[in-house]
Structure formats: C-alpha cells, structure tokens
Amino acid sequence: MSETELKGLRVLVIDDNVDTAEAIALLLADAGAETSVATDATDVAARVLAFDPGMVLLDLSLPTVDGYEGCRAIRALEGLQPYIVAVTGWDGAEHVWRCRQAGFDLHLTKPVAAELLVEHAHLALRRSAQRQG
C-alpha cells in the first residue's frame, strides 16, 4: 500500500472501542488519508462540519447517540455528503435495512478486512473528487 494512495481523503472514524478506532485510523493514515478518531457520536454534526471528511466510518452501537442517529444527523447537514459506512458487529438483514433507512452508503460487519476498508476509501476519494470537480 502506497503512503499517498489515499492522499486528499479525510476519514472520521467513530467507534467506542478505542483500539478498533485507532487501528482503522492508522491503517488509512498509512495509505495517505488524514484521519480523526472519536469514541462516540455526540456532536457528530459539529465534528463533520469542522473536519469535512469525505468518509465517515461509524459504529452502530455507541453510548449516548447510536450510529443510526449519528448518520441521520450527518445527512441533515446542508452541502456535506460524505461516504458513510456502518462498521459494526451487528449483522443481519434488519440492520442492513435500518442502515439504508438512516442514510448509510454501506454496512460492513466486523471484523472488516483491511483491503475492504481501503477499497471503500478509494470509492469515497473518487466521490469527493467528483463533487469538487
């Protein structure tokens, strides 16, 4: 993986498991992405406005504000439409459906292979470039 492979992509990782959040952020940072980590979705809209990520990796099971509510808060922001991925231990058709209803672009079940995260980061980078160009 090249250190500049994901250059220009900002990724916000939100997971209450600090080790998981930091490992994902490190993986994407090693590929050139700029990353930010949070352990809950409280004030997620303010974080997205401040960081302007092209991709948000959001756990569903979070304290205070769950991932579904966090995703809806991001989607309610004017002009910002990051690629939002649920990265969760919750599997099954019901959770996939609820993710779609909340506005997620994708539902991935933990553990997620590094290659799959990088593949979707590339999609987010292309999507960001299309919006800017």
UniProtKB/TrEMBL annotation:
This is Response regulator. The modification 4-aspartylphosphate is found at D59. Coiled coil: none annotated. The lineage of its organism: Bacteria, Pseudomonadati, Pseudomonadota, Betaproteobacteria, Burkholderiales. Residues 10-125 form the Response regulatory domain. Keywords: Phosphoprotein. It comes from Roseateles agri.
